[in-house]
Design brief:
Blueprint (H helix, E strand, L loop, with lengths): L1 H10 L1 H14 L1 H29 L3 E19 L5 E10 L3 E15 L2 E16 L20 E6 L10 E4 L2 E4 L1 E2 L11 E5 L6 E12 L1 E5 L4 E8 L5 E4 L5 E5 L2 E9 L8 E3 L11 E4 L6 H9 L2 H19 L5 H22 L4 H23 L3 H23 L4 H19 L3 H7 L3 H6 L1
Parallel strand pairs: 1-11, 3-12
Antiparallel strand pairs: 1-2, 1-5, 2-16, 3-4, 4-10, 5-9, 6-7, 6-10, 8-9, 11-17, 12-15, 13-17, 14-15
Helix pairs in contact: 1-2, 2-5, 2-6, 3-4, 3-6, 4-6, 5-6, 5-8, 6-7, 7-8, 8-9
Length: 445
């Protein structure tokens, strides 16, 4: 019964096309399994990157420096014992100018087959503060606690600090201490130092800071300028502001930002626990490339249906031309070979660059399919043509993977021409169908 059904399928062009379509759909099952495997490996990579980052240092956001001046509140409160107590508020003042310049040195760390990119930054931070003026809040001079004033600088992850931070403040030199006292509204962690803030002051200090993935800045200056250079050649600039100038080449990148007070969503000074939207104005960069190994592999599986469908269609058109027929099981084996490409790409890509993994996987897959096609149809030429067509398909997919912005445009144009070519090759479909039938069937028809 099964043999009779297969014989009927082999003789009917329509049934053969339906069978090829069903085989293509069935082969989407192993392709989906490979896609899930890629997602699992990608999640494992992310977890590994997080673990390495926690051991090294996390993402860094720098806030400040900011002058903090405690002020005794003029209002009186009476506690339960009847004693009169006074509250203390903290006022915050931002610098007039803030200039940050330095280098970001990337460092690749491995754990098993996974890698993550860490960095060490060497920054010089300088600027100026105007004279602190609390008159806008009608504060009495005797209520200002000048002796408790300090300058705070927010650092997201203090584990990244590699050297003592010495700040040159006007004519004095002071060492920053861990903790930002009552300025936790600025940042979750950081450093601070008691300084004389009664008059306008210049400041400068060097910061050597380790981090993982991101290095971000809060533009606290009335005018904030940031200039960075690095040997990393694929930065991802992100945040509220993109660089005003940037240069990226094989030797690395350089970028510069300038942000004005008018560009951000918070004032130059405030007091108390007023909600200040500092994080919304953060800007900076990430050292991770925009498309990683697993994302490229995942994107390539989206073209699996196209790859399998076009290959089996080529086999079908070849059969119409030469009059030989492949067994459905042979179609399935060819489809499995094409699915295996994505599994090879995933496994080999874990040990070398994506481009080399793609080259090795495609050569292995194309070679096996070409040899098998030559054996099925007893023709070396058909094997060579199969290799040529698959090479073009794999080159097309490779090109699409590397054209992120123009992938849809190039892909749609290429598919249009593929459809036009298929329509041209099947323009004499009825003639080819009759030519492929045995003589006795042609006569009876």
């Amino acid at each position: 019964m099964a043999n009779e059904l297969l014989e009927r399928v082999g003789k009917s062009i329509g049934l053969r096309l339906v069978a090829i379509a069903l085989i293509t759909l069935i082969l989407m099952i192993p392709l989906a399994i490979i896609g899930d495997l890629i997602n699992d490996r990608s999640e494992t990579r992310k977890e590994t990157m997080t673990e390495i980052g926690e051991e090294w240092s996390g993402k860094q956001t720098l806030t400040g420096p900011v002058i903090v001046v405690p002020v005794t509140n003029s209002g009186y409160l009476t506690n339960s014992t009847g004693n009169v107590s006074r509250t203390i508020q903290h006022t915050f003042f931002l610098p007039d100018t803030l200039i940050i310049s330095g280098t970001v040195k990337p460092e690749i760390r491995y754990r098993g087959i996974y890698q993550t990119i860490l960095y060490t930054s060497e920054l010089t931070i300088s600027g100026t503060f105007s004279e602190v003026d609390l008159s806008r809040w009608s504060v009495n001079e005797e209520d200002i606690r000048w002796q408790e004033a300090y300058v705070a600088f927010g650092i997201t992850d203090m584990r990244g600090v590699k050297e003592e931070i010495i700040v040159h403040w006007a004519d004095t030199t002071v060492a920053f201490e861990s903790g930002i006292q009552n300025a936790v509204t600025l940042a979750p962690a950081g450093v601070s130092a008691h300084v004389d803030v009664k008059q306008s002051n210049d400041f400068s200090f060097n910061l050597k800071l380790d981090g993982n993935d991101e290095l971000m800045f809060i533009p606290v200056g009335k005018t904030t300028r940031v200039n960075l250079t690095s040997s990393w050649d694929s930065p991802s600039f992100q945040g509220a502001f993109l660089p005003d100038e940037r240069s990226i080449n094989d030797d690395g990148f350089s970028a510069s930002w300038q942000v004005l007070e008018l560009n951000r969503a918070f004032p130059q000074s405030w007091r108390g626990t007023a909600e200040v939207l500092l994080d919304e104005s953060a800007f900076g960069l990430s050292l991770y490339p925009p498309v990683d190994q697993y994302r490229k592999t995942q994107r390539s599986t989206r073209y699996g249906f196209l790859l399998i469908g076009l290959t089996l269609l080529f086999f079908f058109l070849t059969e119409l031309r030469i009059g030989l027929r492949a067994h459905p099981f042979q179609y399935i084996l060819v489809g499995f070979d094409l699915c295996l490409f994505f599994l090879l790409l995933l496994s080999i890509g874990g040990h070398m660059a994506f481009n080399y993994a793609y080259l090795i996987s495609s050569i292995a897959t194309i070679g096996l399919a070409a040899l098998y096609a030559g054996s099925i149809y007893r023709s070396t030429m058909i094997g060579i043509i199969t290799a040529g067509i698959l090479t073009l398909l794999y080159l097309f997919i490779f090109m699409i993977l590397h054209l992120q912005d123009y992938a849809l445009f190039v892909g749609s144009i290429a598919l249009y021409f593929l459809l036009a070519l298929t329509m041209y090759l099947t323009r004499n479909f009825s003639t080819l169908s009759q030519a492929s039938m045995p003589e006795n069937e042609t006569e009876s028809s």
